[in-house]
Specification:
Layout lengths: L3 H5 L32 H26 L5 H27 L12 H6 L9 E3 L4 E3 L3 E4 L4 E4 L3 E3 L4 E3 L4 H31 L10 H34 L4 H5 L11 H9 L27
Antiparallel strand pairs: 1-2, 3-4, 5-6
This protein binds zinc ion (2 copies).
One zinc ion binds next to loops.
C-alpha cells in the first residue's frame, strides 16, 4: 500500500517505469557548463535587482548620511561596519548563486547504474522522469533548475538558484547579512532625521532638502521591507536546519525516514565541522565532514 509520503513524492516508483534504455547519456560538458549558473530570466533579473538595492543603500548611507556628518568618528565607525556587512551580504549572495546546490547527475538512470545498486526483491529506487536520474532519498526535482537537487529546500529567485544541501550556508548568511544592513541603515536614517531636525536642513546633506528626504524615505521603505522579509527567512531557515526538515518536506508533510540528530549536529552539517568563526564567513566553504552516503534504495 502506498503511504501518504509515497503518494506525495514527485516520482515514479514501480519497476515498469524504470526504462533505462530510454535514458540517453547526457551530452559531453564543455568548460562553461562546469560553472553552476541557472539561465532563468526572472531569476537573473531578481538577482540584479538585489545587487542594485544594496548599491542604492550604499549610496544613501555614504553620500547622504555619513560624508556630510560632522562627527568623523561616527562616520568612520558606521562606514566600516555598514560596508563590511554589505560586502559579506553580496559575497554570500554570489556564492549562493554560483554554488551547485547538490544536483544529482543527469541521466544516471542507466541499466549499469541500477544493476550496480544490487536491488533485492521488494526494494524500490526512485527515478525522476524529468531529468532521467535515479534520485537519492530527500532529493526533489526543481523545474527551474531542471535538475534533481539533494535536500532541496526551495528555489529562490532572489539568488537565482535552488537552496539545497551544498549552498544552504551561503543562503542563510545572505539573509542574515541583508537583515543586519537593513537594521543598521534604519537606525542611521532615524539618527539622521533627528540630527537634521535639530540642525539646519541645508547643512545636513550635500543634496537639496527635498531630494535628501525622498532618498531617506525610500531607504527607510527598502530597509523595513527587507528587514522583515530576510529576518523571517533567516528564522525559518535556522529552524528547518535545527529540525533537519527541508521546506519541501515540511510543506508536503513527508514522513521522517532519516535518523534524528541533535540540533548542534544538524547545524554543523550545514555550517561545517567544527564550530568556528568560519561559520559566519561566506568565503569559507563549509567542511561538512563525512557526508552521509546517498541512499538510493528505499
Ligand atoms: Zn529530476
Ligand atoms: Zn531550482
Amino acid at each position: 500500500m502506498l503511504t501518504q509520503n509515497h503518494r506525495f513524492r514527485d516520482i515514479e516508483r514501480a519497476a515498469v517505469y524504470l526504462q533505462p534504455e530510454k535514458c540517453v547519456p547526457p551530452p559531453a560538458q564543455d568548460s562553461m557548463d562546469k560553472v553552476w549558473f541557472i539561465k532563468d530570466g526572472c531569476g537573473i533579473a531578481c538577482a540584479v535587482v538585489t545587487w542594485m538595492l544594496v548599491f542604492y543603500a550604499e549610496f544613501v548611507v555614504i553620500f547622504i548620511m555619513l560624508l556630510p556628518s560632522k562627527d568623523i568618528i561616527y562616520s568612520i565607525v558606521n562606514g566600516i561596519v555598514f560596508n563590511m556587512l554589505a560586502f559579506l551580504a553580496l559575497v554570500s549572495h554570489f556564492r549562493a548563486m554560483i554554488t551547485d546546490p547538490g544536483a544529482v547527475p543527469k541521466g544516471n538512470a542507466t541499466k549499469e547504474f541500477i544493476e550496480s545498486l544490487q536491488l533485492k526483491p521488494g526494494q524500490v529506487v526512485y527515478k525522476c522522469p524529468k531529468c532521467c536520474s535515479i534520485k537519492p532519498d530527500r532529493a526533489h526535482h526543481c523545474s527551474v533548475c531542471k535538475r534533481c537537487i539533494r535536500k532541496m529546500d526551495h528555489h529562490c529567485p532572489w539568488v537565482n538558484n535552488c537552496v539545497g544541501e551544498n549552498n544552504q550556508k551561503f543562503f542563510v548568511l545572505f539573509t542574515m547579512y541583508i537583515a543586519l544592513i537593513s537594521l543598521h541603515s534604519l537606525i542611521m536614517v532615524a539618527l539622521h532625521f533627528l540630527y537634521c531636525f535639530e540642525e539646519d536642513w541645508t547643512k545636513c546633506s550635500s543634496f537639496s532638502p527635498p531630494t535628501t528626504v525622498i532618498l531617506l524615505i525610500l531607504l527607510c521603505f527598502e530597509g523595513l521591507l527587507f528587514l522583515i522579509f530576510t529576518a523571517v527567512m533567516f528564522g525559518t531557515q535556522v529552524h528547518s536546519i535545527c529540525t533537519d526538515e527541508t521546506g519541501i518536506e515540511q510543506l508536503k508533510k513527508e514522513e521522517r525516514r532519516w535518523a534524528k540528530k541533535t540540533k548542534w549536529m544538524n547545524l554543523k552539517a550545514v555550517f561545517g565541522h567544527p564550530f568556528s568563526i568560519a561559520w559566519l564567513s561566506p568565503l569559507a566553504m563549509p567542511d561538512q565532514g563525512k557526508a552521509d552516503p546517498y541512499q538510493y534504495v528505499v
